[in-house]
Each structure stands twice: as structure tokens, then as C-alpha cells.
Specification:
CATH topology of the largest domain in chain A: DNA primase, PRIM domain
Helix content of chain B: 55-70%
Number of strands of chain B: 4
Oligomer: heterodimer
Radius of gyration of chain B: 24 Å
Distance between the termini of chain B: 86 Å
Number of strands of chain A: 20
Number of domains of chain A: 3
Shape of chain B: globular
Number of helices of chain A: 16
Structural class of chain B: mainly alpha
Strand content of chain B: under 5%
Shape of chain A: globular
Strand order of the largest sheet of chain A: 2-1-3-14
CATH superfamily of the largest domain in chain A: DNA primase, PRIM domain
Number of domains of chain B: 3
Radius of gyration of chain A: 26 Å
Largest sheet of chain B: 4 strands, antiparallel
Order of helices and strands of chain B: HHHHHHHEEHEEHHHHHHHHH
Helix content of chain A: 25-40%
CATH class of the largest domain in chain A: Alpha Beta
Largest interface: A-B, 37 and 28 residues
Distance between the termini of chain A: 12 Å
Strand order of the largest sheet of chain B: 1-2-4-3
């Protein structure tokens, strides 16, 4: 980004902050703020100005209008002394923050095979799953869940209710593990009815038998390998529903197709044949009814693995997981702009999230034509229109498209 | 139920705010407690609480038949806390807090009434619902907010306590009653541990040194018996200084009462069995563990040992230790081996060799003279 481009982008950001109405987070005066400015180092070196605090909303708004930062963050935590050095801040509590990024869902190696649009769709799907966990399992109310488009390739969820504030790292890690099915033990949910009392392929049984409601106990030890669901809530419900969906999926496929799918999952030919046949039998309808009672019948472990894989919130094997257990991190200010895309970190509710299309709804700049010099081949669809530029071929594009390419570092002003 | 009127009841749960309120309102001053002859019984019982913690890992609850007895029992608790604080030993504080918590846990389980569970939930500010499923007396269930659950269960390492392995719906975690009582134990433990040591003035510590002296002796003895590597060697002569770093670390944590993951316990147990410790000796090393349950531990140890017709296990290899995050870093001997047991054998050999060399040296030294 050359000086001329930087000045232009900076001015445009300033125009945005002058007209934008930004709602600061709750207890903003107890939060630490951090900004990256369009300073002489930008973007070669990102200098984060941290340990800032604002006593009033006016101070914050004025700061944004004057300095028009490339990136704006606030702490998830609230502190006694937000401007002090990290060790002296006096941590009071932190919002529960979830940070889902396409980076986490698609492995680095596969990333180039996906378009920006595909990645956004993928991450939206995972976010919907996470929201479902938060509403149904964790029991948060719709209005407790504040979403925001990250301005790049993901979504953030902020939960600021009082109850979660005091959670420590370890407790937060448990929440992460829950939605990602880390440390999940099938044997806690599924009881192998015929297994040896003490031990089975699904784990220890002894203590589970107590979990089985008395009126269901006589069904234990009935049929070889049959499984009884012993926990009906949360993940138990997901296993149950996942199995019904799975059966419907196989049932809806041709015999051959169904067998192939099962083979691909690592299920033996013989077993695959049996399963496909079983799903198509008339009695299956009756059995589905019994499944609601938790009598699931026999299914090979690969089926359960598949169900869990589908139901959990995904993350590639990276250190930075989609949900953060870090209680001191900074998160993008909803309503601010993302300096690498010019898109708005748009605050969303569960309702508005469903219909939200970042490539339309997070665009804040206008349509007046701007001439740019592309530095490489690039393509983007914004506001329903596709723009493709070629390296070295000067193009005149609407301002919002120009700013997207300029911020990406894919073009300079002419 | 008005608790503060019933010392015979609350004396079993002296960490409750109702108990400290009772003591406060009784008019007994700190001065009285540490020096008045009337309270000698309370002081002796206070000392006993700690000695029991060191010895047995549990503060036994006496049979209380009179109000006077109950009051002594109640007063013995603040005195015990003063004693522990004067000694100021981290290990003792952990051990003592754990023992008090375990004792309360036992007492709750032994009781027939659920009232105490209600009261404790309230005490620890846990918003809890009890459900008795129709026709299923033993199936009393407890539903508690996940936030409260995490607050207390996050320290429990067994996988069954992981939230992901729990029924969770509408923000509420489903537990069996006995499991909930285990959570209460954690809450008690946390409360007792968190405000220890108290800030006790030096002159008071001085005034009660005849009580702390005995405790220190007991503590020393325990230390001696357990050795530096942190486990009781019993009659078998084994050399803990030759243990690989991973095993020493695990045993050290167990000794300190730090909770140790299941995979590490397995590794530690298998290792000790492999080098020839008996099951009883091994169970002893687990006594400090925060979620120690003798019966369960015995079952696990025996299972690994190969009783009850199961396989006898060998300690996991270095590779497996690394996979489970139980490898704590290599020393020079580690570089040459791929199994903790090989480490031990090799190190023993090296030790013997160096001892022999030293002896030879001193012998040849004698000759030269």
C-alpha cells in the first residue's frame, strides 16, 4: 500500500467513522482498547496501540473520528485499571467470546481450493451450529447472543450476561470442549446392552447401569450389540437426532449409492449391505419410534463417528480454536471497519444473522467510480455484482470495490 | 430450618457461615480460645483434626451427644485453622482442606435426609433443582446451572466430569444425587483452602506452639516415610532417585495432592507395580489425590496389577507418555531409552557403577596413603 493509497483509504475510513453510529460494548469504561492506525508503518508492520481506555462514550466516538483506525479492538475482559500493564489491570471478569474463522474450519492446505464466498458459507454453517448449542444446551436467551461479522472470514459471538463473566480459563475450555466434542466418550451416552457388566467396547458400564431408568432396565441384555441411549439431553439428543437423520439419508439413497457411502466411512461391505437393507425395511418406521425412547439398535462405531463429526462445531487441528478460553484477549469492536477488507464488523442478532450476506450487508462504501491499478489477478462479488481485475490493467470500479481491493493489498490507486 | 440454633447439627459442617456466626455470637474471644482452660478440649480436638488429616487423609467425625460437646467440636475448627496457618506449610494446607472436605462429604452421604444438601447448595449459592422420578426412589436427580457446575467440576480430572460427557439442557447439568454431593465436596474444599493461611499474629502462634510442635513432628514423619520422590516405599527397597522425570513428576503431584489425569495415574501405577511395589503401597501413594476414593482406586490398581483375571499391564512407553502429555521433558538418560522402565534399569546400573567407582577410588586413595 503506497502513501497515496493509504491516505485515500484513511480518509474514506474517517468519513465512515464520522457518519457511523457505534454502540460501545457494555461497561466500555472498564475495558482495555487497542487500535492499529494507518500510521507510517502500516501495513508492513502493524503497531497495536494497547492499554487505552475511554471514560465516556463521547471520548470513544471522538477518538474513532479523529484517528479513523484500520483496526479497532476492545478487551473481552473488564478490569479495575484497564490502562495499567497486563499484570496490574485487576481482572474482574470477561465476556464469553466465540471466534469462528474459516481458517479454523478448513485446513491451511485446503484453503486455496475455496473461494471467499464458499468459506463465508462454510463458516456461517458452523456458526449456526454453535448458536444451536448456545440456545438449547447452554440455555442462553436469543437476546443474550450478540453476533458480529468479523469483517473478514468469520463471525464472532459475544455473550455478556453476568453469569458467564466470572468463568476462568479452565471453565471456558470445558465449554469449548463441549461444542467441539473434545474428550467426548460415547460410552457415557450409549449403553451396550449385552456388554459385560464392567467393561465394553463403549467404555465402562458399571456406573451407567444406574443411569438407565428402572422401567427401561428390563430391555438391557436383550439383543446382541443393541445400544440404549442413557442420557437424553444435549449431546444425547444430538446422537439420537443424528442417527435418525443418518437413516433417512441412507434410506433416500439408491442401494448402491448407500453402500458406497457406508464403505467410504470404513464400514465393511457385508455390514454396509445389511445396513442399507435394514433402513429400507418397513419395520424401520416402527423402530424409529422406539429410537425416541432411546432404543437405538446396533450401529457400527463409524456411524457414530460420522454423526459426531457432523454435529460438532468444527475446527482444523490448530492451536487457536474457534472458541477462546483466553480471558484477556482483544476482540474487534462491532461497528468498526476491518482494515484488510474495508468491510464492516457488522453487529447482528440471531434473527438478522440468518438473512445476513456479508458481501452485501457489510459493505459501507459508495458507488462513485475510482480508478485502480491491480497488482494481481483478483475477483470479488460485492452487492451482487462480480468484479474481476487483471494484474497491471487499470480498472475503474465502484468505490466500495476499489476499497476492498486496496485494503486487501491487491491494488493501488492510479 | 434455623441452623444457628442447632450446634449439634452444624458442628459437623463447621465451615458454614452459620457455624462461624454461631461461634461469633457465643461470645468466645480469640483470647479465650487460645488460652482459657475451659477450651482445652476444643484445642486438643483442633490439633487432632490436623493430625488426622496428615495420618489418615480424613478428619473423622466424632459421635456428638450433647450441646456442650457440639460446641467444643465447633470451636475446634477455628482453632485448627489457626494452627494450620501458624505452621504455614502449603502441603499441610492442601491436605487439611481436602481432609475436612472429604469428611463432610462422607457425613452428607451417610445422612438420610436431603435437607443438608439443600442447605449446602444455598450456602454455596448453587441454584439447584431436585427431581424424584416417579417410582424410582434411588434415581433422585439434581439439575444445576452449568456455570456453577463448571465452577466446581473443572478441577475434577476424570473424564466423566467433563461437561461434554454430561446431560446438558437449557443451561442445566443433570447429575445423580451422589454426584452432586461430590460437587459439594469440591465447593467445601475450595472454601476451606481459599482463605488459608489466615494472617495470624506471631505472638499468638508463639502462645500455641505446644500444639503446633506435635503437628510439625507428625508432618516430618510423614515426609520421611514418603521420601523425596513422594511415595511410600514401605519394606521394598527401591530407589526413587532413579525414577524417570515423568514418573517422579506424577508421584510428586500425587504427594502434593495435585489432581493427576487418569492416563498419568495409570502410568504411575503400572510403573510402580512393574518395579515390584505391592498394591497396598501404591494405594497409599494415591491417598492425597483430591478425588481419592479408596474402593475405586483399589479396583483400578488391582485391575492393572492383573487380579480378577484381567491382563497385567506394563507401564506405557515414552511414545505413549508423550501422546498423553505426560512426558515432562527429557534428561540425558531419556535420550538413550524409549521406555520409563528402561530408564529406571539404566539409571540404577549407572548409580551402582558410580558408587562402586567412588568406593574403588576411596580404596585406592587409602592404598596411596
Amino acid at each position: 500500500m503506497n502513501e497515496k493509497t493509504k491516505r485515500f483509504v484513511s480518509r474514506k475510513f474517517q468519513e465512515y467513522y464520522r457518519r457511523a453510529k457505534i454502540e460501545p460494548p457494555s461497561d466500555f469504561w472498564m475495558r482495555e482498547w487497542g487500535f492499529v492506525l494507518f500510521d507510517p508503518h502500516y501495513p508492513a508492520k502493524l503497531v497495536m496501540r494497547r492499554h487505552t481506555a475511554f471514560a465516556t462514550k463521547e471520548d470513544l466516538v471522538n477518538y474513532l473520528r479523529e484517528s479513523a483506525p484500520a483496526h479497532a479492538y476492545h478487551s473481552a475482559a473488564v478490569y479495575n485499571y484497564p490502562t495499567a500493564a497486563m499484570a496490574e489491570k485487576g481482572w474482574i471478569g470477561a465476556d464469553l467470546i466465540f471466534d469462528l474463522d474459516a481458517d479454523h474450519i478448513v485446513s491451511e492446505a485446503d484453503l486455496p481450493h475455496y473461494s471467499y464466498e464458499d468459506l463465508l458459507a462454510l463458516v456461517k454453517e458452523e456458526t449456526l451450529k454453535l448458536v444451536d448449542f448456545l440456545l438449547n444446551d447452554f440455555g442462553f436467551a436469543d437476546e443474550d447472543i450478540e453476533l458480529a461479522f468479523s469483517g473478514s472470514r468469520g463471525y464472532h459471538i459475544h455473550i455478556t450476561t453476568k453469569g458467564v463473566r466470572g468463568l476462568g480459563s479452565r471453565e471456558r475450555r470445558e465449554i469449548v470442549d463441549y461444542v467441539m466434542a473434545t474428550g467426548f466418550e460415547r460410552g457415557r451416552y450409549l449403553l451396550d446392552k449385552t456388554a459385560d457388566y464392567r467393561e465394553s467396547a463403549y467404555g465402562k458400564v458399571a456406573e451407567q447401569v444406574n443411569e438407565v431408568p428402572l422401567h427401561r432396565r428390563e430391555t438391557i441384555r436383550k439383543k446382541s450389540g443393541d445400544l440404549q441411549l442413557v442420557v437424553f439431553e444435549g449431546w444425547g439428543k444430538r446422537l439420537n437426532k443424528g442417527l435418525v437423520d443418518f437413516i433417512a439419508e441412507i434410506r433416500g439413497m439408491g442401494d448402491k449409492e448407500g453402500r458406497r457411502k457406508l464403505n467410504e466411512m470404513g464400514i465393511s461391505k457385508e455390514m454396509a449391505k445389511k445396513i442399507v437393507k435394514m433402513t429400507k425395511e418397513e419395520v424401520m418406521i416402527k423402530r424409529l419410534g422406539r429410537m425416541e425412547e432411546g432404543e437405538l439398535g446396533f450401529w457400527p462405531t463409524q456411524v457414530w463417528d460420522k454423526i459426531i463429526e457432523k454435529e460438532k462445531v468444527k475446527s482444523a487441528d490448530r492451536v487457536d480454536e474457534p472458541v477462546t478460553a483466553d480471558i484477556k484477549r482483544l476482540i474487534r469492536l462491532p461497528g468498526s471497519l476491518h482494515g484488510k477488507s474495508s468491510l464492516k464488523v457488522k453487529p447482528l442478532t440471531i434473527e438478522t444473522f440468518k438473512e445476513f450476506d456479508p458481501l452485501v450487508d457489510a459493505v459501507v462504501f459508495g458507488d462513485s467510480p475510482v480508478e485502480i491499478l491491480p497488482l494481481r489477478h483478483s475477483s470479488i462479488e460485492l452487492k451482487g455484482e462480480r468484479y474481476t481485475v487483471e494484474e497491471g490493467e487499470i480498472a475503474s470500479v465502484p468505490e466500495h470495490v476499489a476499497l476492498y481491493f486496496l485494503c486487501r493489498g491487491a491494488a493501488e490507486l492510479t | 430450618m434455623e441452623w444457628h440454633a442447632e450446634p449439634m447439627h452444624i458442628c459437623f459442617y463447621p465451615f458454614l457461615s452459620a457455624a462461624s456466626k454461631y461461634v461469633e455470637e457465643s461470645g468466645v474471644t480469640l483470647e479465650d480460645l487460645i488460652s482459657s482452660a475451659v477450651f482445652e478440649r476444643a484445642r486438643l480436638r483442633g490439633k487432632e483434626r490436623i493430625i488426622e488429616a496428615i495420618k489418615g487423609g480424613e478428619v473423622r467425625k466424632p459421635a456428638i451427644i450433647s450441646n456442650a460437646q457440639a460446641e467444643m467440636e465447633l470451636l475446634s475448627y477455628p482453632f485448627a485453622r489457626i494452627l494450620v496457618s501458624c505452621i504455614g506449610d502449603d502441603y499441610l494446607i492442601r491436605r487439611y482442606a481436602l481432609s475436612e472436605a472429604k469428611a463432610a462429604h462422607e457425613k452428607i452421604l451417610a445422612g438420610s435426609s436431603s435437607d443438608i444438601i439443600y442447605e449446602l447448595s444455598e450456602e454455596f449459592d448453587i441454584r439447584v433443582d431436585f427431581f424424584r422420578l416417579p417410582q424410582e426412589q434411588e434415581q433422585e436427580q439434581v439439575h444445576m446451572p452449568f456455570v456453577d457446575y463448571l465452577r466446581f467440576a473443572a478441577n475434577l480430572r476424570d473424564k466423566r466430569w467433563k461437561l461434554v460427557n454430561r446431560g446438558l439442557e437449557n443451561g442445566r447439568v443433570k447429575l445423580r444425587k451422589s454426584e452432586f454431593v461430590r460437587i459439594i465436596q469440591e465447593a467445601i474444599h475450595e472454601r476451606i483452602k481459599n482463605d488459608l493461611p489466615l494472617d495470624v499474629p506471631a505472638d499468638i502462634c508463639e502462645a500455641i506452639s505446644r500444639y503446633t510442635g506435635d503437628i510439625k513432628t507428625e508432618l516430618e514423619e510423614k515426609r520421611k516415610k514418603f521420601g523425596d520422590a513422594g511415595f511410600e516405599l514401605g519394606s521394598v527397597v527401591k530407589d526413587p532417585s532413579c525414577f524417570p522425570p515423568c514418573i517422579s513428576f506424577i508421584l510428586g503431584n500425587l504427594k502434593e495432592g495435585v489432581n493427576v489425569p487418569h492416563s498419568a495415574r495409570f502410568a504411575g501405577t503400572a510403573f510402580l507395580l512393574n518395579i515390584g511395589l505391592t498394591e497396598d503401597e501404591i494405594i497409599e501413594t494415591y491417598k492425597n489425590s483430591p478425588d481419592f476414593d479408596e474402593e475405586r482406586t483399589r479396583y483400578q490398581v488391582e485391575h492393572i496389577a492383573g487380579d480378577k483375571g484381567s491382563v497385567r499391564y506394563t507401564a506405557p512407553s515414552c511414545g505413549t507418555m508423550r501422546t498423553y502429555g505426560n512426558c515432562v521433558g527429557k534428561d540425558e538418560v531419556c535420550e538413550k531409552v524409549s521406555h520409563p522402565l528402561s530408564y529406571y534399569k539404566r539409571k540404577l546400573k549407572l548409580e551402582r557403577k558410580s558408587k562402586k567407582e567412588q568406593q574403588d577410588k576411596s580404596k585406592s586413595g587409602e592404598k596411596e596413603q
